[in-house]
Amino acid sequence: MSYAMNRRQVLRASAALGSLAAMGAASGMLSPRVAAAAGQLVITSYGGRYERFWRETLLPPFEQATGTEAVVDVGLGVNWAANLRASGPEKPAYSYVMMNELVGALLRQEGFFKQWPAQKVPNLAKVHPKAVVGDGMGVTAMVSPIGIAYRTDLVKAPPKSWKDLWDNEEFKGKIGLFQISNTAGYMFLMMISQIYGSNALDFDAGFAQIEKLVPFPTGDLAGALAILLTRGEIAACPLDLGETINMQKKGAPVAFIAPEEGMFMFDQTFDLLRAAPNEDAACAFLDHVLSEEMQVKLAEEFSYIPVNTSTVLPEELAKSLMFTANDLDKIVSFDWIEANKVRDQVTERWNRTVR
C-alpha cells in the first residue's frame, strides 16, 4: 500500500478530515473514540483485500486467544493522522496505528508515540533490527521490497544494479517509472540521488539521471506499471516483489532482482500511542501480528517478507518470495522527516522535468 498523494495534498486532506474528526468527537459520533472508551481495541486497516484479510484471517484467532473485542477502522494513514491531530496526543482514539513511515515519521516527531514495551510484546525479541524504527516507537511488521522487475524475453543481460537502467542499451527507451506522487516514485529518486550523488537528498544528482531517461511512461500505482510491463511497452521498471509475483502467476515472462546497491520498500509500521487507551491489547495484537504463524499468512496473502527471524516459510512460498527476514539489511531506509520538508519542491521539479 502506498500513497499517491504529494505532501501538500496530504496536509490539505488532513486538515479537512481533522475538521470532520473534531465535529464527530464533539457530537460523540466518532466511532474509534466510542469504541476505545468502551474498552474495545480499534484496529486500523486499509480497505478491500486488506480489510477482508484482517476480518477473516488476522482477527479471529487474536480475539479468541485474548478475549479482546476488536473494531476495524478502515481508512488510510492520512485519515488516522487527522483523527489523532484533532484529539491531540493526550486523548487518542487509537491505541496503535498502522501506516507508512511517510506519515508515521511526522506523527512520531510531533510526540504522539512511545516505545513498544518489550515485556508486553515477546515476539519483538525475534524481529530483525532493520524492522525497528524511531528508537523502538515503530515496528515495521510488513515489508514489500521494491527492486527491478524486467521482461526475461526482452532482456539478454539481466540487470544487477540500478545503474543498469542507464547503462544497459537493451533498456534504452524501455524504462517505466512510478509517478512522483507515489511514495515509490519519491523513494526511487532518493535512491538514485544517493547512488549518483552525495546522499539521498542530493536531488541535483538524481534529476541529472532522470533527465537522461526522458521521455518515459509513468504509473501512479504498481498495477499500472505491471500492465505496461505485461504488454511489453516497457522492458524494466522499479516494482515491488508482490506485484511481480502476481504477474508471474498469470504467466507473464518477468523476473525480479535486488539491485546490488539495495532495495527500498513499501512498509506497514505499527506505532504505539503515548496515551493509548488500551495499551495491553495493542501490545498483544502486535505480538500476534509478529508471530511466526501470522507472518506466514501475511507472506501467503500479500507476498510480504517476514520480519520475525524465526519464521519458516513453506518450501514453494520461500522459493517465490526469494527473501527472508535475514535479507532485510538489503533494504535502504530514508529520512522521511527531511524528505518531507522538500517534497513539494521536488514534486514540482519532477513535473517540470518529465512533462
In short:
This protein is of the alpha+beta class. It is 46% helix and 15% strand. Helix 7 packs across helix 8.
Set down the secondary structure blueprint:
Layout lengths: L6 H21 L3 H7 L3 E5 L3 H18 L3 E5 L2 H11 L8 E4 L1 H9 L3 E2 L17 E2 L4 E14 L12 H4 L9 E2 L4 H14 L6 H11 L4 E2 L2 H10 L4 E5 H9 L4 E4 L6 E10 L5 H12 L1 H11 L12 H7 L14 H6 L1 H12 L1
Parallel strand pairs: 1-2, 7-8
Antiparallel strand pairs: 3-11, 4-11, 5-6, 6-9, 6-10, 6-11
Helix pairs in contact: 1-4, 7-8, 8-15
Largest sheet: 7 strands, antiparallel
CATH topology of the largest domain: D-Maltodextrin-Binding Protein, domain 2
Number of helical stretches of at least 4 residues = 15
| The CATH class of the largest domain | Alpha Beta
By secondary-structure content and strand pairing, the structural class works out as: alpha+beta
Helix content range: 40-55%
Number of separate structural domains = 2
The number of distinct β-strands equals 11
Q: Quick one: CATH superfamily of the largest domain?
A: Periplasmic binding protein-like II
The N- and C-terminal alpha carbons lie at a distance of 26 Å
- What's the architecture of the largest domain in CATH terms? 3-Layer(aba) Sandwich
What is the overall silhouette? globular
Strand fraction band? Answer: 15-25%
Query: How many whole angstroms does the radius of gyration measure?
Result: 20 Å
Order of helices and strands: HHEHEHEHEEEHEHHEHEHEEHHHHH
Q: Report mean pLDDT, rounded to a whole number.
A: 91
